[in-house]
User: Which sequence fits this backbone?
């Protein structure tokens, strides 16, 4: 790490020591403190979801369903999916890193609506606790997709309660989305035009569009589901003239764009990491910015590729397939542009960069296997098999989580004012990368062999690959614990970080680490493009 | 490859070979691009490794034309994949005209099958080699999905609707059948097999089956029981359309629309007669909703399909005195 340990200035007040006590945190309106509240919450949900993954993989070590019972297994993978998607992946990067960084990156004192920001954390937490309560009552076994009529008629678990938890949490997404959009429109520092914005900000802008356009559809879908389950009004139930496939359309109309909620912000993180550690303006800045928005918009038009064999008409399938191919183009362009940014750069292999390089590889595999799934003929065979499980873990765990960790390591000195140990952080990144591949690569093979997803027992000949996957999961689990340990350690014992330990450009590096409550000593102005690395930047403050 | 550790599924249909070819092409593209990216990323990251603390990267080169090229190439490849995939998909969704219909009723957690001659079995489906088989499928409860990896076929099985799937096995043997739509507690055990037999063996197998005691009424009996024949008599054109030979025809409706008469249409007309009214008739037909089980409904539809076929194509009528039912387990 290019350590420039700050001269200890212990008396400077910053957002962490500006105020003390539990109350000062729970009632804070500082976006940076709220980001930390979110960090704690999403980490706890990640831990719980991870614990369930451990049980899932333990069950799958042997072909017979002998570790837990079928009903328990079904609840486990359902809760694993729900916690990871709705309570970890969707909020993680936007609510933690986005919250912390957007005002800093645009030179603002805070978000546009600080109280709404705090409220969004409360709504999220209440939704989460409510969901956990429902799990303790007996959980839910429908899969995170809640397909009807199983969820409305045949499951006797806590479908409505869990649905309500997700419904409540959805409002926090909407609040965050509105807050980001207004902030980005109204509160940019003088001189910070749209095309001078960091790509991280563009990515969050695109994500916020999905938040506010998509989440209401999810809310409506959940309400319809609950109404159908309680009163059997016949929207989805064929016995009453309803249409079970309609539910799938509604569900995926939100949940497909939601996949981009999980990955777009991370793409923003990647752009920041790649430029900072190549010390070079990103290749094709404008294309990158527009690609984010294009992905967000096109992402709304491809939900039907989850339903090729659902009885949907083959012509509809064709349209969804073509559109899916179109979404793949901006994603591919992003990968090429990151790669091109490294060309003739000044590349340093710091820990965040290791995550970024790993991300590019895993995301490429995840994306290309996504193209395979979008291809009509192939999907007939691999739909709802482990091939799909492998694909979405490459995107969501290989992409979104690697990106989240990369971002966390990049901005950790800014957030805490501390550095973490170099050796352990690099070691952790490598263990995670290897564990990840061992866990999920065999699942592609299992899927093509024909192993369906959501099976707690499987034919004997699938065992070797499953054992490999479970072994990988053990390594991956340990890998995740390494950063948890040294990051917590660093908060107390880490070396003090300077304002700009990486020598990066961007307004967030021009204020103290950690920043003062209102972010900047003096309101900044901007007179240059983003990522202007023509000369080595000296930070203005120390 | 050893039995304990196979890496590739067996393949027993033409469709399987076609999907594999497309899959390997896609896999090749995936491998080439992933490797290309990986190699470039690593090469650049090493070659342009930072040498001194103060070094910065060189300003960007290339620009627009590069962006155009590397958007256009993926786009072209993707469109190729799309076209190829769509071709296979349409083939997989359109049963050839010589297909023989078998009926599938899915239920938590078993597969119930019915042969053209009315015989029934559970979880194992026996079919003759080389015959084009079309499955007409419905569910009695949740959504299920019929998946035979060796045939590379998959189709969801929905309540209240018929979906179809077809295959022509090229190899005799026993092939795995899975349910791939999560359908509740025992979803993982909703397995079965498709047994492909030499036609001679299949005939012998059919002949050898001992017929179980429970039987579902035949379609003809149901037609009489429900008093369908009071209106739909082949000699009375007055009250209702004659049903002889209508299957597969295009019917014109009172509202001017036209619909191909298939299983889904027949099902709708039986359960909800008012939904589509044939031109020139009144909405007087009573619904059979609640009076028929899924399997009886299938029998009835099978009977309607047989009307107007020249020979008594379905031996069911001949052997019906003994009853066609064979049900194990349930
Ligand atoms: C150690 C890491 C993990 C392991 C070993 C693991 C394993 C699994 C397994 C075995 C399934 C069940 C697949 C099925 O039966 O259909 C599953 C489902 C899923 N996982 Fe993970 N997982 C891990 C981490 C994650 C993470 C970090 C996320 C998200 C951030 C995630 C998201 C999901 C989702 C969305 C599903 C789908 C659930 C469903 O289809 O109902 N997983 N995972
Ligand atoms: Cu099933």
Assistant:
């Amino acid at each position: 790490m290019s350590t420039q340990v700050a001269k200890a200035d212990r008396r400077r007040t910053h957002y962490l020591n500006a105020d003390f006590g539990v109350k000062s945190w729970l009632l804070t309106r500082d976006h940076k403190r709220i980001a930390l509240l979110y960090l704690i919450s999403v980490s706890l949900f990640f831990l719980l979801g991870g614990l369930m993954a451990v049980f899932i993989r333990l069950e799958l070590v042997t072909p017979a369903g002998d570790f837990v019972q079928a009903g328990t297994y079904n609840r486990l993978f359902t809760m694993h999916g729900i916690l990871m998607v709705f309570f970890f992946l969707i909020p993680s990067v936007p609510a933690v890193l986005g919250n912390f960084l957007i005002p800093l990156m645009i030179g603002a004192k805070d978000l546009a609506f600080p109280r709404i920001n705090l409220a969004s954390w409360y709504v999220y937490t209440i939704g989460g606790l409510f969901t956990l309560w429902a799990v303790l009552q007996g959980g839910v076994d429908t899969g995170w997709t809640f397909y009807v009529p199983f969820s409305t008629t045949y499951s006797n678990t806590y479908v409505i309660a869990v649905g309500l938890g997700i419904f409540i949490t959805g409002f926090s997404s909407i609040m965050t989305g509105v807050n980001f959009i207004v902030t980005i429109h109204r509160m940019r520092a003088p001189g910070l035009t749209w095309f001078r914005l960091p790509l991280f900000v563009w990515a969050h802008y695109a994500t916020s569009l999905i938040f506010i356009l998509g989440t209401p559809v999810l809310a409506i879908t959940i309400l319809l589901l609950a109404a159908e389950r309680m009163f059997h009004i016949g929207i989805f139930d064929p016995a009453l003239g309803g249409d079970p496939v309609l539910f799938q359309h509604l569900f995926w109309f939100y949940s497909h764009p939601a996949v981009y909620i999980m990955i777009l912000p991370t793409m923003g993180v990647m752009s920041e990491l790649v430029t900072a550690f190549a010390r070079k303006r990103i290749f094709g800045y404008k294309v990158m910015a527009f690609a984010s928005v294009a992905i967000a918009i096109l992402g709304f038009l491809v939900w039907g590729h989850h339903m090729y064999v659902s009885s949907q008409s083959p012509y509809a399938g064709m349209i969804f397939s073509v559109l899916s191919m179109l979404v793949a183009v901006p994603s591919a362009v992003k990968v090429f542009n990151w790669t091109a940014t490294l060309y003739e750069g000044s590349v340093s292999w710091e820990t965040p960069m290791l995550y970024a390089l790993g991300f590019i590889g895993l995301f490429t595999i995840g994306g290309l296997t996504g193209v395979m799934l979008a291809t009509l003929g192939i999907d007939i065979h691999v739909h709802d098999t482990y091939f799909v499980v492998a694909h979405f873990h490459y995107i969501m765990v290989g992409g979104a989580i690697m990106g989240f960790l990369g971002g966390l390591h990049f901005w950790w000195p800014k957030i805490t004012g501390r550095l973490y140990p170099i050796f352990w952080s690099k070691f952790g990144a490598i263990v995670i990368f290897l564990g990840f591949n061992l866990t999920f690569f065999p699942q592609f093979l299992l899927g093509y062999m024909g192993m369906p997803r959501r099976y707690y027992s499987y034919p004997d000949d699938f065992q070797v690959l499953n054992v490999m996957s479970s072994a990988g999961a053990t390594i991956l689990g340990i890998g995740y614990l390494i950063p948890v340990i040294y990051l917590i350690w660093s908060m107390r014992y880490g070396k003090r970080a300077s304002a700009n330990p990486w020598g990066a450009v961007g307004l967030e590096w021009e204020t103290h680490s950690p920043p003062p409550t209102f972010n900047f000593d003096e309101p900044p102005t901007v007179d240059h493009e983003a990522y202007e690395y023509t000369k080595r930047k000296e930070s203005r403050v120390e | 490859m050893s039995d304990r550790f196979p890496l590739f599924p067996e393949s027993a249909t033409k469709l399987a070979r076609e999907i594999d070819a497309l899959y390997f092409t896609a896999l090749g593209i995936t491998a080439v691009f992933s490797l290309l990216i990986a190699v470039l990323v690593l090469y650049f990251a090493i070659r342009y490794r930072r040498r001194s603390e103060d070094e910065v990267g060189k300003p960007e080169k290339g620009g627009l034309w590069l962006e155009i090229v590397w958007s256009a190439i993926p786009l072209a490849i993707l469109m190729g994949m799309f076209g190829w995939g769509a071709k296979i998909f349409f083939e997989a969704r359109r049963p050839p005209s010589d297909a023989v219909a078998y009926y599938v009723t899915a239920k938590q957690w078993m597969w119930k099958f019915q042969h053209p001659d009315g015989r029934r079995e559970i979880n194992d489906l026996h079919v003759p080699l080389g015959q084009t088989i079309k499955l007409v499928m419905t569910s009695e409860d949740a959504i299920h999905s019929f998946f035979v990896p060796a045939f590379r076929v998959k189709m969801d099985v929905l309540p209240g609707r018929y979906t179809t799937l077809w295959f022509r096995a090229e190899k005799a043997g026993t092939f795995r059948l899975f349910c791939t739509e999560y359908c509740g507690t025992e979803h993982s055990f909703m397995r079965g097999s498709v047994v492909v037999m030499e036609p001679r063996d299949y005939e012998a197998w059919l002949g050898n089956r001992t017929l179980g005691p429970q039987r579902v009424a035949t379609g003809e009996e149901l037609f009489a029981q429900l008093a369908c024949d009071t209106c739909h008599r082949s000699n009375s054109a007055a009250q209702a359309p004659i049903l002889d030979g209508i299957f597969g025809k295009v019917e014109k409706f009172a509202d001017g629309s036209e619909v191909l008469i298939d299983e889904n249409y027949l099902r709708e007309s039986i359960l909800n007669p008012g939904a589509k009214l044939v031109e020139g008739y009144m909405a007087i037909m009573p619904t059979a909703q609640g009076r028929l089980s899924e399997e009886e409904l299938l029998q009835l539809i099978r009977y309607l399909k047989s009307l107007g076929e020249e020979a008594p194509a379905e031996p069911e009528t001949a052997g019906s005195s003994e009853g066609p039912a064979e049900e194990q387990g349930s």
